[in-house]
């Protein structure tokens, strides 16, 4: 797995990120100068977390503790992803590389990496390159010239991120019925958190984690994926990459 | 700008620090392959359950009206079933919002 393969796989994510971060740039430019908004994207590379962070940052009543807690719960899902991804990486993925490349664990990059048999550092670095550039530059462009765009267009860009999510989930649902089952549980729970008043005290970030945990646990209990690691050929390929 | 530079920098440091911590620590600590079929299955389901919980019902509130959000979701699912990739599906959902918005204006 080469750098160039990663770059190629990362291109669609980078394009999508450009569109999504554009709306973040517009939102941020109301409060901060464009270099400061862009710096948030360059150091965080998160979607929902950044939007929430911006809100807290610009809220007069916001505190540093609130920022830490909100970021923690909204982004806790990345820990779940990091654990999943750790099961896929080649042996030459050392501590230093893991520390540097961990920034690339986003919803989409993670999902694409998980679709590979084995992930080595140089491929993962290639995979995150264009999304990183797209996310940062999209924020900058949005912050600088977002106001030129008509409200109708920025409104439409609001669904770009979710469109990308759908494009990742639906193909797997199509070929693997238990995934459809898991997704249905996750959506039902997520709607319950949104619409049942008793649950409204649960923060969005925490609700996502509960939905994902419960749905994945139930699906794993009812429909364990037995041949996940049975493919010796693939495992051998992964081990070989480390030598 | 309504916050001073020092406050901004502390906020930025907290945000970026917590985020990197969440990503890097589990990634660095987990070295061994899980032997358990249950837990590896659980982790295999995680990407899809996280993304779907994030999408529904949030997409209904991502635009000015629930109608356009709902149409965007429907269009994205159809485009994806027809084999569209990341960018195609994202573009289709954005264009759907524009189209429905335009249609609602005309009606």
Q: Can I get a quick summary?
A:
The complex is a heterodimer of chains A (243) and B (107). Chain A has 243 residues and is mainly α. Chain A is 74% helix and 0% strand.
Salient structural properties:
heterodimer; A: 243 residues; mainly alpha; 13 helices; 74% helix; globular; B: 107 residues; 4 helices; 0% strand; flat
What does this structure look like?
The complex is a heterodimer of chains A (243) and B (107). Chain A has 13 helices and no strands. Chain A is globular and about 50 Å long. Chain A has one domain. Mean pLDDT of chain A is 86; it is low at 230-234. Chain A has helices spanning 3-29, 34-44, 48-58, 64-75, 77-86, 95-101, 107-114, 121-145, 151-157, 160-175, 177-195, 204-222, 232-240. Chain B is an all-alpha fold. Chain B has helices at residues 5-29, 37-55, 66-81, 86-106. The interface between A and B is large, with 101 and 77 residues.
How is the secondary structure organized here?
The complex is a heterodimer of chains A (243) and B (107).
Chain A: H1 3-29, H2 34-44, H3 48-58, H4 64-75, H5 77-86, H6 95-101, H7 107-114, H8 121-145, H9 151-157, H10 160-175, H11 177-195, H12 204-222, H13 232-240
Chain B: H1 5-29, H2 37-55, H3 66-81, H4 86-106
Helix pairs in contact in B: 3-4
Shape of chain A: globular
Q: How would a textbook summarize the main sheet of chain A?
A: none
Number of E-state strands of chain A:
0
The radius of gyration of chain B is 20 Å
Write down the domain tally of chain B: 1
Q: How much strand content do the residues of chain A show? A: under 5%
The stretches of 5 or more residues of chain A where confidence is low (pLDDT under 50) are 230-234
Helix-and-strand structural type of chain B: mainly alpha
Low-confidence stretches of chain B: none
What is Rg of chain A? 19 Å
Binned, the helix content of chain B reads over 70%
Number of helices of chain A: 13
């Amino acid at each position: 797995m080469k750098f160039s393969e990663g770059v190629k796989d990362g291109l669609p994510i980078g394009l999508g990120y450009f569109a999504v971060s554009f709306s973040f740039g517009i939102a941020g430019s109301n409060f901060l100068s464009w270099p400061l908004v862009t710096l948030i994207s360059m150091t965080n590379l998160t979607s929902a977390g950044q939007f929430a962070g911006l809100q807290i940052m610009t809220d007069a009543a916001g505190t540093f503790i609130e920022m830490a807690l909100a970021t923690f719960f909204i982004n806790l899902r990345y820990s779940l992803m990091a654990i999943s991804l750790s099961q896929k990486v080649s042996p030459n993925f050392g501590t230093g590389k893991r520390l540097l490349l961990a920034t690339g664990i986003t919803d989409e990059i993670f999902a694409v990496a998980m679709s590979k048999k084995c992930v080595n550092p140089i491929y993962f670095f290639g995979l995150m390159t264009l999304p990183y550039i797209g996310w940062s530059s999209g924020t900058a462009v949005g912050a600088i010239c977002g106001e030129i765009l008509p409200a109708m267009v920025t409104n439409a860009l609001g669904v770009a991120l979710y469109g990308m999510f759908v494009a990742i989930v639906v193909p797997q649902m199509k070929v693997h019925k238990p995934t459809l089952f898991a997704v249905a549980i996750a959506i039902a729970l997520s709607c319950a958190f949104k619409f049942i008043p008793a649950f409204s005290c649960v923060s969005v970030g925490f609700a996502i984690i509960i939905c994902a945990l419960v749905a994945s646990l139930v699906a794993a209990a009812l429909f364990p994926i037995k041949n996940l690691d049975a493919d010796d050929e693939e495992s051998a390929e992964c081990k070989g990459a480390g030598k | 700008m309504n916050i001073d530079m020092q406050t901004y920098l502390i906020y930025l440091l907290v945000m970026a620090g917590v985020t990197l911590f969440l990503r890097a620590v589990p990634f660095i600590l987990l070295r061994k392959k899980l032997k358990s079929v249950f837990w590896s299955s659980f982790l295999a389901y995680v990407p899809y359950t996280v993304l779907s919980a994030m999408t529904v019902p949030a997409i209904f509130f991502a635009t000015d009206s629930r109608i356009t959000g709902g149409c965007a979701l429907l269009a994205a699912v159809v485009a994806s079933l027809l084999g569209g990739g990341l960018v195609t599906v994202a573009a289709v959902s954005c264009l759907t919002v524009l189209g429905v918005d335009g249609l609602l204006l005309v009606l």
